[in-house]
Amino acid sequence: MEQKLFSREDLKRLIIPLVIEQTLAISIGLFDTLMVSSCGEAAVSGVSLVDSISVLLIQILSALATGGAVVCSQYIGKQMPERARLSAGQLIFIMLVTSGAVMMIVLCSHRFLLRAIFGQIEADVMANAEIYFIISAISYPFLGVYNAGAALFRAIGNSKISMYTSLVMNVVNIGGNALLILGFGLGVFGAGIATLVARVISALVMVALLMKKDNPLCIATPGCMKPQRDVIGKILKIGIPSGVENGMFQIGKLMVSSLTATFGTAAIAANAVANSVAGFANVPGSAIGLAMVTVIGRCIGAGEKKQAKYYSRKLLGLAYMGMALTNITLFAIVHPLVSCFALSPEADAIAVQLLVSFSICAIAIWPLSFTLPNALRAAGDARYTMGVSVFSMWVFRVASSYFFAGTLGFGVLGVWIGMYVDWGFRSMLFVVRYQSRRWLEKRVV
């Protein structure tokens, strides 16, 4: 192998801040759930239902950011800095237009969307959901800009920026929650306002940093945000398949969430808490998946296929080590952890059951299902990952969830078993593709 593109220190500087950033990002949802839980299960359930929709929209925006990061990483690998800066500006333009459109759609049809997706749910849950959905929608453009900025800084290997910005966002959010929910008793409205303010501040910080002249991906250069069809096309070549993949994945989850809603408020609240806690256990795999985009994209751009395979295996191994550590810890402390959320005895028991099953399955197959495909996407093989993910979601996750939860009567646990079946199928096909080496023949720029 020729001189390595990334030293061990380079990988540490990239991955460690990403782990911290992902932990902080998930903390926002967890602290919202934890503090809102003091207002009752109807409030927790309302926030949970909206979050399941918001995640769909956020994942689509994140997919576009990933497309921009792949293009920038490959241009950096090819040592074409001007094209990399132009791509950065085009990504910001795409994110502003897309997130603004999503915000307007939600503001104009939030009530229709909630009723169409979740149907007849308890009136107090729906009232809380409507309040939280409106405020969340206003924050989408700011979150989109933040995601774009974070992806661009990761593309140049500077993940500390997004880590520090995420820290600021969390401090503002937690402080806002404490003041508005616990201090002024504003409940779900207070949680939404705190999150909105945090996202506005994080977006402004990202824009200010991206406009600095010494930034390799400076967006203040003349014409960088003027629409350029060829560059936008390259970004969308990765972003659209990834967006469709993430979108269909989340739509499937929404259908499953509507099934969960039929099991009652206790099941909804338990599912919300379990999802929040499980997110922390996934942090190592998620963080290393983001690092994959930068590292593999740079290798492919430089024409270093051997290094792309070497680093993908190395990073996957690190993901497994990290996931084992977090999920074994989760298994050991699950009972006292769930008790912090002030759930009813029924909801508490369900949440523990879900998290125990999760901690076992995530160690075995989560990295293959979600970390490994980022290596394929970074090389430009986004259509394959899209096809596998969409097929697996509908054939395995949705169908299996209805079978285990409805037909066999496992309740909300059946929904999670369906999720594990989906992970297993995805993992198998991603490993087959990886071993075939066809992904190494792809290139975006």
What is the gist of this entry?
This protein is an all-alpha fold and 445 residues long. 84% of the residues lie in helices and 0% in strands.
What does this 3D model show about the protein?
The chain has 445 residues and is an all-alpha fold. The chain contains 13 helices and no strands. The protein is globular, with a radius of gyration of 21 Å.
List the helices and strands and how they pair.
Elements: H1 8-36, H2 41-77, H3 81-118, H4 123-155, H5 160-183, H6 187-210, H7 229-261, H8 265-281, H9 283-301, H10 305-338, H11 345-379, H12 382-407, H13 412-436
Q: Quote the beta fraction.
A: under 5%
Task: Report the mean per-residue pLDDT as an integer.
Answer: 88
Which structural class should the secondary elements be placed in? mainly alpha
As residue ranges, the low-confidence spans are: none
Distance between the termini: 23 Å
Estimate percent helicity.
Answer: over 70%
Features:
mainly alpha; 13 helices; 84% helix; 0% strand
